[in-house]
Amino acid sequence: HVNPRWQTDDVEPRGLTGTTPERVEFQRAGEGHPLDDVIVHARDKLCAPATLEVQVKRTMTFTASDSEFKDVVAQIAKAGQRSDFWTSRYELAIATARHSAKLDGAYQDVLGVARQTAAKVCAGRLVRPHAFNADMRQFVATFRRNLEVAGTVVDDISIWPWLARIQIHVYDFTAEASTAAILAREQCLRALADEHGSDAGRLWTALVDIAQAGAVHGGDRTREQLVAELREQGFQLRGE
What we know:
- The protein is α/β, with parallel strands linked by helices.
- It is built from eight helices and six strands, in the order βββαβααααβααβα.
- The protein has a six-stranded mixed β-sheet with strand order 5-4-3-2-1-6.
- A hairpin with a 4-residue loop joins β2 (38-44) and β3.
- α1 crosses α4, α2 packs across α4 (134-149) and α6 packs across α7.
- The longest helix has 18 residues, at 200-217.
- The mean pLDDT is 94.
């Protein structure tokens, strides 16, 4: 069956390309989501489910001395024990508020290679001179060590499927002239009917308030619930 909503103008959830969103949940550690701050449920063109768990940290260095990275990797190890983790599209993300040269460069490069390249090839590149730089090698070593500390047995090849499931997202809302804030307002403008574009700022504020209330109470919203709530607040969405 083809997803009946596939032809809509919905923006893909970040980290789940090729899908349309269905539900967002907050604070769901008690319901079996170790990375529990935000959980996004979506479906692809053929209606197959896709899930993204997100753990939010204001800052993270991703180094061996970073205790928060160690804790998050332990959560990742726990997520990998889910019965559907390796048999479905199940992604894990760390969201942080600050860019860094290593994060934007070496660390993202490692994760990109893991997603695009066979594990055996990745393992060979890791030990081949000049294939990976020192920061890339250190990131892999730290991630592997943290997994092993969490009780997950991995080797030179099996570490790569883990890395292929990991994403790092930067949302620089606290920065001056935040690109994340600019993009959010642009997406709000796209979501509104043409004659209501001036409501984009108000729509973004409403979405922030809804998300914060949901996070406080461990709530959730389906797409239909969110649309209905926005209608009640007087927003006219595109396509209605």
